[in-house]
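From the pipeline queue, job 12 of 40. The input is one protein chain; the requested action is below.

Action: predict structure.
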Amino acid sequence: MGRRMEIDGELFRGVVTTKKMVQNPDYDYSVAWHNRDRSVPPSIPSETETVTTMLGPYRRVGDAKSMTTQFMKNGYGQDKHVVGSHIEKAVITWEVLDD
């Protein structure tokens, strides 16, 4: 579902780079399905691969910053293995096509 925005010349978006989650080699599915021990997680963050997520567009810098901060935390308030994040600005210009 899209949202309508009135563009007055500037748009902002948040860019978040996180570590990619990969399958844990120490996790055994045959034991874990009936054993409720959560000491060995099924997936772990990769040390070499990353995922970049674009959030937005937003009309104000504050909206982009708040949504970027909210995206970087999980449901428990812990970091989602974030490598880096920043806010990008786009300047929209309109051109006349038919004279």
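Job complete. The chain has a mean pLDDT of 85.
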